[in-house]
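SEVERITY: medium
COMPONENT: batch folding queue
REPORTER: lab tech (J.R.)

DESCRIPTION
The queue accepted two submissions in a row. Attaching both inputs and their returned C-alpha cells so the on-call engineer can compare them side by side.

ATTACHMENT 1
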Amino acid sequence: MKHIDVIIIGGGPIGIACGLEAKKNGIEYLIIEKGPIVNSLFNYPINMQFFSSSEKLEIDDIPFISKEAKPKRNEALEYYRRIVTSNDLNINLFEKVITVQKRGDIFHIETEKQKYTASHVIVATGFYDLPNTINVPGENLSKVSHYYKDPHFYAKQKLVVVGASNSAVDAALECYRKGAEVTMIVRSPAIGNRVKYWVRPDIINRIEEGSIKAYFNAEVKEILPNQIIIKTPEGDISLENDYVLALTGYKPNFDFLKSIGIQLSDDEKLYPQYNEDTMETNLKNLYLAGVICGGMDTHIWFIENSRIHAKTILKSILKSKK
C-alpha cells in the first residue's frame, strides 16, 4: 500500500489546479479521476459554449486562447489536457475512488484498482455525476436520458425536453435546428433569467413563433413507450413522444461525502461543513474544493470563482507541516 502526502479526488479543472499548486510547492501528490481528464467537461454536450470568457476559466495563470471570447467544450478539453500533459501531472485516470476512511491521522483510500494511504485528502468531485430525477412512472425507460450529447440523434423525432436551464435550452434549440419536433416542459411560468443572455432571446422567439412548443407551469406525470403525460393548469395532456431529455440539473454525491464523515447541513441545501479560510472540513486535513462546496446550490461555485481554492488549501497544508 503506497503512502502519498496529498491525494486529490477528482481530475476536473479545480482538481488539476490543486495538483499544479502541490507540485509547485514540492509536495508529493496524486490526482485520482474516475474517467478521462476533466471527465465532467468531456461529458458536456458536444457543441456547448461556456457562459464564462476564456480568461475566467484559466488556472495557475496559464493563458487560455479561444477563437471566441466564450470558449466551447472542445477548446476547454484541449486547454486542460495540455496543462496536464505539459506539466506532467501525477494523475491516475479511469480509477474510481470507492471509500475514504480516516484512522488516526492517516486516510485510507480504496479505489477500484488499488489502495493508498494519505496524510491529506482534497475532494474536488464536482456535481455532474448524479442527475436530479423527476420521479415519475416510466423514467427508467430507455427513451429517457438525463444527459444530452449530440442533436443529430434526435433528428425527425418527437422530443420532449424537461427543464429550462441552460442545458435544457441549448438542447431544445440544437435539436429543433437538426429537425426534431421539440416540446419543452417547464415548471416555472417563463424561461429563467439564468439562461445565457445571448441564448434566452432565441428560445423565447422560437417559442413565440411556434417552432418549439412549450408548456409552462407544467410537470411530467408519466412517461409511456410512445407517449408522455403532462400535468398543466388546464389539465392532463397526452403527447406522442419518441424521446425524453430530462435535463433538470445534477447534484454532488452526498452519500460519498457522508461515508467519509463530512458533516452536511440539516436542511434541503445539504451544505458541507468547511472552514472558508482554509477549505478544511470537520475532519482535520480533509479539504473540499470547487463546486461541491455549494451542496445543492450548484450555481454558487464555478471554475472562475473556485480557482482560488487550490492556493487556499495548499497554503493550509504547508502551514500544518511547520
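ATTACHMENT 2
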Amino acid sequence: MDTLYLVIPCYNEEEVLPETARQLLSKMQTLMESKKISEKSRIVFVNDGSRDRTWEIIKQFHREEPIYQGICLSRNRGHQNALLAGLMTVKAYCDMAISLDADLQDDINAIDEMVEKYYAGNDIVYGVRSARDTDTFFKKFTAQGYYKMMHHMGTDIVYNHADYRLMSKRALHALEDFKEVNMFLRGVVPLIGYKSDCVYYARKERLAGESKYPLRKMLSFAWEGITSMSTKPITIITRLGIVIFLVSIAMLVYSVIRHFAGATTTGWTSLIVSIWAIGGLQLLAIGIIGQYVGKAYLETKERPKYFVETYLSDEE
C-alpha cells in the first residue's frame, strides 16, 4: 500500500474547515480500511497567510487527530504558490499527493478512482468537471472561451480542469525542476509528460463562506496563465503591426490618387479616427510587451516563491 497525502490550500476558510476536515477524514479512513492506501497517509492544510482563525483551527485539528497536518506560510503568497509549497513539502513523505480546494466543490468521491488509476500506472490523474451546471451563464461562457484561447495560443492545458489532481512522487520531483517564479500549475503539470489519465466528476456548490476568486482575481489569474505559458500575444502584436503597415501603404496610394484627381482636402473624421486607433494600438502593444519584460525581470531576480514558517508534522 502506498502513502497518500491530501494537500489543501486555505485562505480565510474558518467557516468551511470543520466540515471539510470531517469529510476528508471519513474518506481517508474508508481508503485505509479497504487497504487502498497506507495508514501513514495524511491530510495537509496549507495556511496561505489567512487573516481569520484558519491557522488556529488547523493547529487544533492536529492536536486532536494526528492524521491532520498543517503548513503555515510566512505571508500570503497566492493560491498557486500555497499549493506548490504544500506539494513540495510533502513529496519527501508520500508516494502520491492529491491537491484540492478547501471548499470541497470538487467531489472527494473521485479520490477513489484517482487512486485506482495511480495503481494502474498513471503518474498524473486530472480531476475534470463533467459539466458546468452550477455556473452562471457568464462564468460558463468565459471559462470555455478561456480554455479554447489557451489551446489556440499553444498551451497544453486540460479542458475543464482546475487544480484537482493526483501526482506521484516521481511527478512531484519532476515538478520541482520547473524553476520559474511565475508558476502556472495548470499549464506546467502537463509539460511533465509522464503517463496520465482523467477522472470526471460533477462540481458541487461551495459548503460555506465566500469564493476567494471574484471576477477581478479570475481575470488576473487568466492573464497570468496566458503570459506565463505563451508568447503568442507578442506574435499577434507583430502581425497586427504588419497589417497596419499595409493599410498605411494603401492609404498612401489612395492619398496620392486623390491628390492628382484634384481632391486635396482630407476628411477631419478619418484623420482623427486614424490617430486614435493607431495611438490606442501602440499603447496596447507597449503594455503587453511590458508585461513580458516585467515577468523576465522577476525571473532574473530568482526570488523565492514562498517561505514555510511552520510545519505541523508527525514529529510535533
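NOTES FROM REPORTER
Residues 31 and 199 are 17 Å apart (CA to CA).
No errors were logged for either attachment.
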